[in-house]
Amino acid sequence: MKIPFASQSYRSRSLPLSAQRVVNLYPEIQTPSAKEIVALFGTPGLPLHAALGNGPIRGMIRLDCGCAPGAGSLYVVSGSKLFKLDSNGDSTTLGDLPGTALVKMETNGTQIAILTGTEADNLFIATTTTLTQVTDTDFPGATSVVYLDGYFIFTDTNTDQFRISAINDGTSFDALEFASAEGAPDNLVGASVDHRELWLLGASTTEIWYNSGDTDFPFERASGAYIERGCIARDSIVNIDNSLMWVGDDKIVYRANGYSPGRVSTHAVEAVLEKAGGLADLVAFTYTQEGHAFYVLKKPDTFTLVYDVATSLWHERESHDRPDYRVSCFAEAFGLLLVGDDSNGNIYRLDLKSYTENGETMIASATAPPLFADAETAIANTLIIDFEHGEAATTGQGSDPQAMLDWSDDGGKTWSNEKWRSIGRKGKHRARAKWDRMGQFRQRVYRVKISDPVKRVISSVAYADIEGGGL
Fold it and tell me: What superkingdom heads the lineage (predicted)?
């Protein structure tokens, strides 16, 4: 008979109810005529694109300057240096930057504003050839920077105020060119721009402003555009698929639906966020690949949760020997999806045909929903998991790829020894991964892992021969 296999990450606070996880795999919904409705596909590997400086990679942004598509340059903050990386692989060091944390970067097409911290001396402006520290005394420091209609817009540190630069010039400020988000007495956490509207996210509320063209100050609050929901982490705010996503002050992940916050997190995701404690260090980035728009949410050294707009399902990502994903930031440049490493100066490509992280093992795992024998015991005679078989490497590691199965009879708290089965050498497309004689259970959770550098595709159903064993 068919039994359900993993289709998403939903690890309940009560593991016997659901210990389901998918790690380094993402679910994709198929057409009704497909073999199964849901399949799990391997997340992209990380082949090396460039190595710049000592790292970590603190931020990246593309500056096209009107160049042809795929040209332009990528500007990268690695450690204490700003690099300019061209499409041919050449790199230039433009100068030094203070700090070690992630930076905020924004461009007006000819300049790049770089915030290395929240103080008045933490704003730098880069061009194609220079890096300059902003010394205008009318700039008081900021927590975030965005761009709209010729202006760099900054949220002031520890206030409800935001201010604008001179038009098309991030080095110049006027002390009177600011306004306040005064709908509630909360400080601004960060800002974003969506559909040419300025979203100002505070600690407990959100306001939306627009460019009215007023000669005194160009931005005004949009009528009725007030949300009684704030943001808990500046770096959780990202634009995705013609909308905005962020982690709310109530530790729920939201996606904007017009001027309304739509909850997209599950109770399982919210339990992870609650358990993690302080969330001010959350980091998010988004990218789109083969029609999937991914919101990648990471708490460093703790977890990485990923929401797929295409399916509304969550999965997880982990790097080898880490509880989280090594990626710190993202940029699209040279026709490639590029990410930076949070511990060195490496920049990688997100490549669905790569199955390692720059040569390091990438383990994909799928933990199924629980099987219950009601009030009886059951005997598991046979389990067949449906992989895409025969996609092995020709030689070396992965030439005889193995699936590693274990199971838990106590709700995912302890696990059996692993039992390995081949998923087919090169061209062996009719192979089967079959396990026999797995004993009795009253409740059981199956988990399968693949570490070999081969294509990973797993059906969301498995096939089992299970018989009743009595009370």
Answer: Bacteria
